[in-house]
């Protein structure tokens, strides 16, 4: 049985399988729309898409894609996105009790295909493809 939220959101988003491969194993029983003619419009929260998606802004990708409730500025290329994130860090010189040189730090995009793991036979870390 569908709860109130599921009923309210029924066929309000496009089916990912339908969009990507052109078919869906659930057919007419799918909770998602198979084309714009099936898609229902839903009343969104006043805060919907009013804040920038931090994940997309940092990495250029977001696991939620079009379903993300935050803003993705997809027209901004990755160079501009990273330059906008560059922030100065001040390293403090404890001996002289004053800040030392400024250093610019720009976060690097995170690629989920790579993970860092330690091998039990070795104390060094290795990059593995997941």
What are the key terms here?
single chain; 130 residues; alpha+beta; 2 domains; two-stranded antiparallel ribbon; 4 helices; 20% helix; globular; disordered C terminus; Znf_CCCH; metal-binding; ZFP36-like; zinc; Znf_CCCH_sf
Structure commentary:
This protein has 130 residues and is an alpha+beta fold. The protein has two domains: 1-43, no CATH class; 45-109, no CATH class. 20% of the residues lie in helices and 19% in strands. It is built from four helices and four strands; from the N terminus they run H-H-H-H-E-E-E-E. It has helices at residues 4-9, 16-21, 54-59, 78-85, and strands at 87-93, 98-105, 114-118, 125-129. The strands form two sheets. The chain has a two-stranded antiparallel sheet. A hairpin with a 4-residue loop joins strand 1 (87-93) and strand 2 (98-105). It is globular. The two termini are 37 Å apart. Mean pLDDT is 71; it is low at 87-93, 99-108 and 110-130. Residues 9-37, 47-75 form the C3H1-type domain. This is C3H1-type domain-containing protein. InterPro entries: ZFP36-like, Znf_CCCH, Znf_CCCH_sf. A zinc finger (C3H1-type) spans 9-37, 47-75. Pfam families: zf-CCCH.
């Amino acid at each position: 049985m569908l709860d109130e939220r599921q009923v309210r959101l029924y066929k309000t988003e496009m089916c990912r399988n339908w969009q990507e491969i052109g078919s869906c194993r659930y057919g007419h029983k799918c909770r998602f729309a198979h084309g714009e003619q099936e898609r229902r419009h839903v009343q969104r929260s006043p805060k919907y898409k009013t804040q920038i998606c931090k994940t997309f802004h940092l990495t250029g990708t977001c696991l939620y894609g079009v379903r993300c409730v935050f803003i993705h500025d997809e027209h901004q290329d990755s160079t501009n996105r990273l330059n906008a994130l560059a922030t100065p860090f001040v390293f403090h010189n404890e001996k002289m009790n004053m800040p030392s040189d400024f250093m610019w730090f720009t976060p690097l995009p995170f690629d989920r295909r790579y993970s860092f793991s330690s091998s039990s036979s070795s104390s060094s870390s290795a990059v593995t493809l997941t």
